[in-house]
Write a structure and sequence with these properties.
Radius of gyration: 21 Å
Distance between the termini: 52 Å
Structural class: mainly alpha
Order of helices and strands: HHH
Number of strands: 0
Strand content: under 5%
Low-confidence stretches: none
Number of helices: 3
């Protein structure tokens, strides 16, 4: 039981929980950064998908649905 408790306290999730309960603004900032990062990743993946669709269309001569 002690090992499990120590492992929990050493985890980054526990540290984040502790910090955000002590400083609620930190939670909002962390969420904002994650959303920003996900939006950036989504934009990149959308561009990559469009480029791949163009490549497929060029190689096959058929339009890619979507």
């Amino acid at each position: 039981m002690l090992e499990a408790g120590n492992a929990l306290k050493e985890s980054p999730d526990y540290e984040l929980h502790r910090l955000t309960t002590q400083t609620p603004a930190l939670f909002d900032e962390t969420v904002r950064r994650h959303v920003e990062s996900l939006e950036k990743e989504l934009t990149g993946l959308t561009s990559e998908a469009a480029e791949l669709a163009r490549e497929i269309e060029e190689r096959t001569g058929e339009a890619v649905p979507g």
